[in-house]
Design goal:
alpha/beta; 10 helices; 8-stranded parallel sheet; two-stranded antiparallel ribbon; TIM Barrel; 10 strands
Amino acid sequence: MTTASTTTRRGTKVRIGVGLGTATTAVSGPGFGPLVDRLEALRFDSLWLSERISGPAPDPLVALAVAAGRTERLKLGTSVLVVPGRNPVLLAKEMASLDVLSQGRFLPAVGLGAVDPVEQQAFGVRREERGRRLDEALELMRRLWSGEPVDHQGDFYEVQGVRVLPRPHQDTLDVWLGGIAPSELRRVGRIGDGWLPSFCTPEDVIEGIAVIEEAATAAGRTSDPEHYGVLLAYCDGPVPPRIAELVARRRPGLDPRRVVPDFSQLSGLVNDFIAAGATKFVAMPLGDADDWDAELGRLADALLPLET
């Protein structure tokens, strides 16, 4: 988000990245390095790693640091990193460090964490506090990224004269948020720099952008037309039962195939999202591919021609 007076969606850049999801095991073995190398060679825009304490996926910041050391152009995103329950001063230092070491390729997307008792217990934050903690933590982190000493006394965090160095490599470290609930959309407008929802339809994107822009205007901000994205899970064949159940809980009455397309439907759905106003995409296969080299190759053939 910016404080500019006008926005336009004409001439925006479409970019395609790849996400590995919370259930991936691809990062835990020797295959992660070649996977990262392949993404770089195929010229995908970005790699996105998700967080789940109780799942097999590794810590996103640690794994992205490994990816940063193997690449020169691939951007590195979190989708999403859980903020409530973390020390925002230490997190600001970690994020700034990753951005510096990657020469400005870090793309943080953050959120509240899964609505799951085990995950919430792991982060040690009561569910009703998560939203306010995220708001305050993000405000504090942005002040710390200035590189100047910061005094802050809030409801959850208090620091006096704390200075975080190095500053991020990027002049502005944009922080994206997820979610499609009305409160989550308004938060994007109020404090977010971009929007990266999952399990959504093109119609959701149209409606969500309207809510975000209304909230941004009320907060004296405007939205960047290139900062609307979609995390798009896909699969071959029927939607796995566990995913169908998840969609049923989140989106009662919605056909799971609307938000989890078959691979053959992927490029057409991305075009529909582009028409709805989204320009940044994270394609995420459900489950680890048997052959990542082949999977990334077919994704590149299907989606990279859509970039502009």
